[in-house]
Write a structure and sequence with these properties.
The longest helix has 18 residues. By secondary structure, this protein is α/β, with parallel strands linked by helices. It is built from 9 helices and 15 strands.
């Protein structure tokens, strides 16, 4: 297994053509990232919870169709599948409304993150949404701690969603800070720099938590990585922007995949050449993703991404 992703898989309701209409699509950042990895021709797994309902069956079917391994009992009768209603502004930027009181993703348990599920993977990946409710929070923390003990590279996406935390930013910061000691590679957006407080610089923050690499997405400006005291920024792949849903997950799936394709299996094998290549591929994947509506449906496949990379790097 190349990447085992842990956390939420939900139904994204995207705006339809008619006013106040929505179309159901599979989504959820950790699941999106796993599928992005699989579409890059690598092996990916997903550990999470969906409801034992029609939406849950739709999500399980999507994972199976995308060749993503599901090691745990993913369907639960404890709650319905979590739903996220996506609203797009005039610039096609997103905001969310969640139906999660409770939602199935919250019921990920310690039984779902057995050490053997993480034994044969290169990366263990998770995000902050599953830290916002129990028992998923404890299960996610345990998965990251176990992955660290097993010598896996730990990837974490801040992916802050204020409504999941009842607009309690401090609670989110404290929960994320609890898992940062396990994290090797951290993904943040330029709007999530609050996680750096109280440190004066990203490198001070990295030194404190012993994080090897921070990657910051900058929206239309591209992305930057911070590594061994150096920073590198690359622009995003330019093009039309229809829907930004899933762009960060397309970026991250392509970024992690690029590292693995270049033979990275441990942190010692990282270098700036490999990281710069991964940053470019991630930016181009994100740029391709926003050209269509929907998160998973718009995730580029490796052939499409390879062509776009070749075209872009020739310019």
């Amino acid at each position: 297994m190349d990447v085992m992703s842990i956390g939420e898989m939900v139904i994204d309701f995207l705006p339809g053509k008619e006013v106040n209409s929505f179309i159901a699509n599979p989504g959820g950042a950790p699941a999106n990232a796993a599928i992005a990895v699989a579409r890059n021709g690598l092996s990916a797994g997903f550990i999470g919870k969906v409801g034992n309902d029609n939406f849950g069956k739709m999500l399980v079917g999507t994972l199976n169709q995308e060749n993503v391994t599901i090691p745990n009992q993913i369907m639960t009768d404890e709650a319905v599948t979590t739903m996220a209603f996506v609203h797009l502004d005039k610039h096609n930027e997103r905001s969310f409304t969640f139906a999660r009181k409770p939602g199935a993703d919250m019921f990920l348990s310690l039984e779902d993150v057995k050490p053997e599920y993480l034994q044969d993977t290169i990366f263990v990946h998770a995000g902050s949404c599953s830290l916002s409710a129990e028992p998923a929070a404890t299960a996610t923390k345990q998965a990251l701690a176990t992955g660290k003990e097993l010598g896996k590279m730990i990837s974490f996406d801040v992916n802050y969603r204020n409504l999941l935390w009842n607009d309690d930013l401090q609670a989110a910061i404290e929960a994320i800070q609890e898992v940062l000691p396990f994290v090797d590679i951290l993904k943040i957006s330029d709007e999530e720099r609050f996680i750096l407080s109280p440190f004066k610089s990203i490198f001070d923050f990295m030194k404190h938590y012993k994080i090897s690499l921070v990657v910051e997405t900058l929206g239309k400006k591209g992305a930057t990585y911070y590594y061994h005291g150096n920073t590198v920024t690359k622009p995003i792949y330019d093009g039309p922007r229809v829907d930004t849903t899933g762009a960060g997950d397309a970026f991250w799936g392509a970024f992690l995949s690029s590292l693995i394709i270049d033979g990275v299996t441990t942190l010692k094998e990282l270098n700036e050449t490999i990281l710069t290549k991964a940053l470019i591929r991630g930016n181009i994947a994100g740029g391709l993703c926003v050209r269509e509506k929907g998160a998973i449906s718009s995730l580029p496949r490796r052939e499409e991404l390879d062509r776009a990379v070749n075209e872009e790097t020739k310019l």
